[in-house]
Amino acid sequence: MSLKADFTQGFVRNQWYAAGWSAEIGARPLARRILDLPVVLFRMPDGTAGALEDQCPHRLAPLSLGECADGGLRCGYHGMVFDHSGACISIPGQDVIPPTARARAYPTIERYGLVWVWTGEGAADEGLMPSVPSYGEAGWEILENGYQHHGANYRIEIENLMDPAHTTFLHKETIGNPAAKNIPVEVSRTEHGLKAFRWIENIPPTPLDRESRDFGDGRVDRQIAFHFQLPATSFVDIAVIPAGAERSDQTMNAGVRTYSYKFLTPETQSTTHFFWLHIRNFRVGDDAFNTKLRGSLEKTFDEDNVMASAIQREQERTGLRQKTALAIDRAPMMALRMIDRMVEEDQAKAA
Amino acid sequence: MSLKADFTQGFVRNQWYAAGWSAEIGARPLARRILDLPVVLFRMPDGTAGALEDQCPHRLAPLSLGECADGGLRCGYHGMVFDHSGACISIPGQDVIPPTARARAYPTIERYGLVWVWTGEGAADEGLMPSVPSYGEAGWEILENGYQHHGANYRIEIENLMDPAHTTFLHKETIGNPAAKNIPVEVSRTEHGLKAFRWIENIPPTPLDRESRDFGDGRVDRQIAFHFQLPATSFVDIAVIPAGAERSDQTMNAGVRTYSYKFLTPETQSTTHFFWLHIRNFRVGDDAFNTKLRGSLEKTFDEDNVMASAIQREQERTGLRQKTALAIDRAPMMALRMIDRMVEEDQAKAA
Amino acid sequence: MSLKADFTQGFVRNQWYAAGWSAEIGARPLARRILDLPVVLFRMPDGTAGALEDQCPHRLAPLSLGECADGGLRCGYHGMVFDHSGACISIPGQDVIPPTARARAYPTIERYGLVWVWTGEGAADEGLMPSVPSYGEAGWEILENGYQHHGANYRIEIENLMDPAHTTFLHKETIGNPAAKNIPVEVSRTEHGLKAFRWIENIPPTPLDRESRDFGDGRVDRQIAFHFQLPATSFVDIAVIPAGAERSDQTMNAGVRTYSYKFLTPETQSTTHFFWLHIRNFRVGDDAFNTKLRGSLEKTFDEDNVMASAIQREQERTGLRQKTALAIDRAPMMALRMIDRMVEEDQAKAA
After folding, report:
1. How many CB atoms lie within 10 A of CB B90?
2. Set of chain A residues whose Cβ sits within 8 Å of the Cβ of B310
3. Is the N or the C terminus of chain B less surrounded, counting Cβ atoms within 10 Å?
4. Which chains are adjacent to chain A, needing at least 3 Cβ pairs under 8 Å?
5. What is the CATH number of domain A136-350?
6. Residue C82 near residue C70 (C-beta atoms within 8 A)
7. Strand A72-74 to A81-82 pairing
């Protein structure tokens, strides 16, 4: 693992990335830079989400300055209309549509309240879509539409998200927990990534745990698992079960459980779209709790952004990643190495 | 015509450019970058407008930080005074004026309410000044002092100004007219440029036309002509005459006529000073109408600026101008080609 | 003396530079860029001022985002703690401290209300600290904590501060004095620099002089001396003594005397930290006078900053320093030459 910061490394292009929340894409087109490409998101008259290069092939006007009209996305300069396949379907004052009148289109999938785009040149593979277990099931509450703009390369974000050790210091006012720091973190491979986790065993349930499930007079085991899924998804899986109970999805779903998802979409080499989604199986329908939780999550992610952005600037200034390595770097370094390999494979595929 | 965007192309230097409105140049010197050179505009004690490189030859202080004093433009740092020829006429505390104590001077002409500067190294040729017919004649109302700062190379601005087709879409809330779009535009050469025009024939006069001239119960012909004059002047000539009448300056001046001038002065390769001047032969002296018209024009030019600036950024990002060509590109492309040729001639002259 | 502007010239590194006012460095660490290096200033538990490279050796987080805690400066990301020698004294969750876990430390001295840092690689030489005569003595009033951020290379600032001629024009509303301009300025070498001075002889004392000292019905001699001390200290020494009296420190201290110090610390090649300190031997303890004086000094230094920043931009645009030389350039040019030589010596020492 090089300790140099390498900003020439490419992105993993043949993948799905969260491009926008469904609720963001309505009557007006939305411009969003993704993997350093300008993309415009819009809806066809039937509601299908489209994603095109945000550039009219005529004079390069951003299509996002246009509007949803005349059966597609109409350029705001001369009125050319494009559908979600990128085909030009009309040119005002001209009957013949030249073959060069075409915009690059990105395949889309709308799922989990998000519009996802496939940024690769290869065929879109729906099997590569991230999956969110229990999403939409009865008894699960969803916090959605979470978005922050972060000032760091997505690798710095992934390091942060696979690193339980920083919460004690960076998040000391929100989720930091000094007591947990002496319980070792285990790291293991998963199907598409990695998890770094610890079980805190045989502790009394918190008041919130107790109020959410009946643990009797008993004690509980609490899992905190930081997951990374290639290329750029992170989630934290927190589960509270009766102490000593079997550790299965079934018992954890019967206990108190939370998934805190972050879908990272590289905007540029130095900035990241940070989409977050939170689901849980307790306090369902409790709007006051939702409001408080949303505020706390936003504050935590703001703290991460301040730190990640400062590190990004320092990496740019020095060309370095780090000067010393600590024991806590194991999971972040494994994640970075997995990204490196996937970028290489992706670029080999493209070549 | 290359479809590449070429930002290394020079400017036409041996020409006059609008540098500032006369009303802007008063007691205090005015800094303005012109063709990528810093210029300071000021007045000599007798009122003559001067234009110097905005740089004191001593320590390079911008002369625009000084003041009009001691018989010329006095540097704000050590008090050296320069006249409009660029000669240093006094140095505080020193009797001898070294020959290197001299600022580059640009020849000026004050006309049409504007101070014009000659930016070339060659002799200033007054015959190359733009002319504005009917300016200052009785029966013509003048809207002057129009200025906007636009975020695009002047070529993108010229494309826009020679392109009647975009008004339907970009200016749909002001001057856009969906009905006109099917009447073909003719393009012809003029003495120093090009015009793209159409006559809309045998239509009823608008209420404004009728109120301005007595067209009886008759119908009218309406001309809209987009003119380009090398290197960077545009004007739209709108005339309304009785249907079928002879199409001469005489009949058009007897009808309802408007000239909408734009004098474009490149500031840098990516920005343009947009001076606008509007004259008309109706509603003379009507201040309420003037106010409304000024607001409408400013809004229209703002819309052009938003689009042109976005295209500038996209040209810079991609190094391209366009990816497909349409029928409506004819006049803009002819204008760009004329500019290209003039730049080549200008550079050959300089070499 | 080249008339070119050379921004590749290094700084004099083996020297002390003012880094911050003591009052600025309290409970929270302070980030400040010095000689183009990021520095964090903080206090150890015993109050000692520390100065480290503002970068954690682990993931390059700016240490200034951390806090003074756990016996040193604690990184805000993972809690590593550093003392003022740069040694890491603890790593949460890890007993062994790797030898690479170390931050670059800069030697500090706290004097004259300022924390000074030694920026060189060589051994810190306390003998090179600037000295401020009469500082802290009874009968002298101190105005401290003066700070401005200036937008110019420190050489442009030094030129300005060794140049009495500009005050007539640039500071015409504050300290400018048209009458003084015809009295010649003498220039002489001092131990570590240069002074440019003039005595205005046999003039009536000002009302302020008369109120501060009893000059009887007599007239006075007034010295204005602009001092430069390598590498980047300037002070103006103003003294009023009875006309014809001996010109010694003793007589001047018995008269009305002022030292106006500026400690310039290069931030980058194009910006400078401008620390100012003013001491005087009259109107001691007069807070109303202090307030008025502080305002007047700030205004004067603002004027210098506007001019110096504009010259910086013009030097960057053109690559030049000046195009003509005047008689008044003698002292500034001598100062620049002394800086040039010292940079060369400093770089030879480093090599």
Report:
1. 15
2. 61-62, 65
3. C
4. B, C
5. 3.90.380.10
6. no
7. antiparallel
With b for 16 or more beta-carbon neighbours within 10 A and e for fewer, the C101-131 pattern comes to: bbbebbbbeebbbbbbbbbbeeebeeeeebe
Considering only residues 120 to 179 of chain B, which have any Cβ-Cβ distance to chain A shorter than 8 Å?
A: 159, 163, 165-166, 168-170
Tell me the residue length of chain B: 351
Q: What is the mean pLDDT of chain A?
A: 93
Q: Which superfamily is assigned to B132-350 in CATH?
A: Naphthalene 1,2-dioxygenase Alpha Subunit; Chain A, domain 1 (3.90.380.10)
A214 pLDDT band, cuts 50/70/90, is confident
Question: Choosing among A52, A60, A75, A100, which should be mutated to test the B contact, i.e. which has the most B CBs within 10 A?
Answer: A60
Strands (E), chain A: 16-21, 30-34, 37-43, 49-53, 67-69, 72-74, 81-82, 88-90, 108-111, 114-118, 141-150, 186-189, 193-203, 220-229, 233-242, 256-268, 271-280
* Second CATH level (architecture) for the domain C23-127: 3-layer Sandwich (2.102)
pTM as predicted: 0.93
Helix (H) or strand (E) run with residue C193 in it: strand C193-203
Determine which of C4, C160, C167, C170 to mutate to test the interface with B (most B C-beta atoms within 10 Å): C170
Q: What is the largest CA-CA distance in chain B?
A: 79
ipTM of the complex: 0.93
Q: Which of A182, A307, A322 sits opposite C76 (nearest CB)?
A: A307
Contact B93 C165 (CB under 8 A): yes
What are the residue boundaries of the structural domains of chain B, listed by start?
16-127, 132-350
Residue C55 is classified by DSSP as S
Give the sign of the dihedral formed by CA B33, CA B39, CA B40, CA B44.
Answer: negative
Q: B325 CB near a chain A CB, below 8 Å?
A: yes
Q: Does C181 touch chain B (CB under 8 A)?
A: yes
DSSP B268: E
Pseudo-torsion of CA B286, B287, B293, B299, nearest 10°? 180
Q: What is the pLDDT of residue B1?
A: 47
- CB count, 10 Å around CB of C234? 22
- What mean pLDDT do residues B177-183 have? 64
Distance CA C87, CA C71 (A): 12
Q: Would you say residue B160 has pLDDT above 70?
A: yes
Distance CA(B128)–CA(B346), nearest Å, equals: 13
Cβ atoms < 10 Å from Cβ of A77: 26
pLDDT band at C1 (very low <50, low <70, confident <90, very high): very low
Q: Which residue of A has its CA nearest to B322?
A: A59
Domain at C139-350: CATH architecture: Alpha-Beta Complex (3.90)
Q: State both tokens at A303.
A: 């703290």
Taking an 8 Å cut-off on Cβ atoms, the answer to whether C314 and B78 are in contact is: no
Q: d(Cα C118, Cα C130) in Å, to the nearest integer?
A: 12
From the options 2.60.120.280, 3.40.50.300, 2.102.10.10, 2.60.40.10, give the CATH code of B16-127.
2.102.10.10
Of A116-125, A210-219, C322-331, the one with minimum mean pLDDT is A210-219
DSSP C84: T
B351, C130, C192, C196 from C189: Cα distances, Å: 50, 17, 8, 9
Closest CA to A63 of B314, C27, B271: B314
Angle between helical axes of B287-318 and B154-161 (0-180°, round to 10): 120
- pLDDT tens track for B269-303: 999 999 999 999 999 999 999 999 999 999 999 99
- Please give the Cα distance from B202 to B221 (Å, whole number): 5
- Spatial strand order in the sheet of B37-43: B30-34, B37-43, B49-53
CA nearest A308 in C: which residue? C61
What stretches of C207-329 show up as alpha helix (H) in DSSP? 207-212, 249-254, 287-318
- Chains near B with 3+ CB pairs less than 8 A apart are A, C
